[in-house]
Structure formats: C-alpha cells, structure tokens
Write a structure and sequence with these properties.
Blueprint: E1 2-6, H1 11-20, E2 26-30, H2 44-59, E3 63-72, H3 90-100, E4 110-120, E5 126-138, E6 154-156, E7 161-162, H4 168-174, H5 176-191
Parallel strand pairs: 1-2, 1-3
Antiparallel strand pairs: 3-4, 4-5, 5-6, 6-7
Helix pairs in contact: 4-5
Amino acid sequence: MIKITLATSNPHKLEEINSINQNSDIVFEVIKGEFNPVENGKTFEENAAIKAKEAAKIVKNYCLADDSGLCVDSLEGRPGIYSSRYALTPKERIEKLLGEMRGLSFDDRSAHFTCSMVLVDMEGNILHTQTGRVFGFIDDKPKGKNGFGYDPVFYLSEFDKTMAELDEAEKNKISHRSNALRPMLKWIEETLLTP
C-alpha cells in the first residue's frame, strides 16, 4: 500500500479521485489546513508542478497535484489556466463565459477541459506527468445540477447532455481528470508498488 498526498484542500477533488481510484492499494489524502501556493506557471503542467512541489515541502510524502481548466477554441483557449480566476464565483464565471460567446453558432462553440497531473517524491522531484482531455461544446445556458465549475455549460454531443447532467459514474468514465488519473494510477502501481 502507498499513501499519496493530494496537493489540494478541495474536498471535491478528493471525492472525485477516490471514486475513480477504487479497489487499489493507493490511498489519497488531502493537505490539512490552508494550502494556496502561487500558481504563476504558464501551462497547466507548470502549475500542477508548483502545487506538488509546495505540498512535498509541507508533508514530506509523495504528492500528486493537478491543474485543470476549460479551453474554448473561439476565445483563443481562454479561460485556460485562469479558469478558476475568470470571475469571483462559479456563477459569475459561467455568466462571463456565455457573455463572451453570445451570438456564436454551435460549430463555433467547441471547447475542451484539460487536466495535467504531476507526481513528485518526498524531495519534490518530478516522477511522472500525465495529461487528460475531454472535448465538447459550450451550451448557451447552464443545465444540470451535478459537478462543479463549468460543468453546467459543457455539452457532450455523445450523451446529448452537459457534464452537469451526467451522474457521477458517467462523468468519471469520460472526464479530463479521469483521463489523466487512470494512466497515472497505472504508472504508480507498476513503478512504485511493484517490487
């Protein structure tokens, strides 16, 4: 068994990661207390590395961090790495996004969620990185009560639903975090858990 600290104090992330990571010998725990490193990287991967390295300084353990966000093609990739800082509240972030996209046709509303994960050792050395994506479109109004962030406006053609209309099991099969986490878990099992 191996314990890995998630470089976050966000309980949503722990829940989502634990629901994907079932029946394994990897146990995740979050950092206790305030954890808010300065994310001044230029990419999702750089920001994830900053968080993982900062966490390792605090807990002296293997640490996994992710940085994720929404990239909209017609907005030149915005909000991107600034997704969580695009406006003050989740509701305001969605309103700002929809305002910027007002009048665009469905074909011009393509977007993807990206999640980059970085795993470091006790000294903060990067052991492995992984990126996952999920592709969709930005709907013209929020729908659904599940998920968080931009999920209510992220439309998935193959389901004819927004991410927020999917149940947790459906979301965890296709989400950007799942698409980064599953290969990361496989790497941990094969590299750190296999003698």
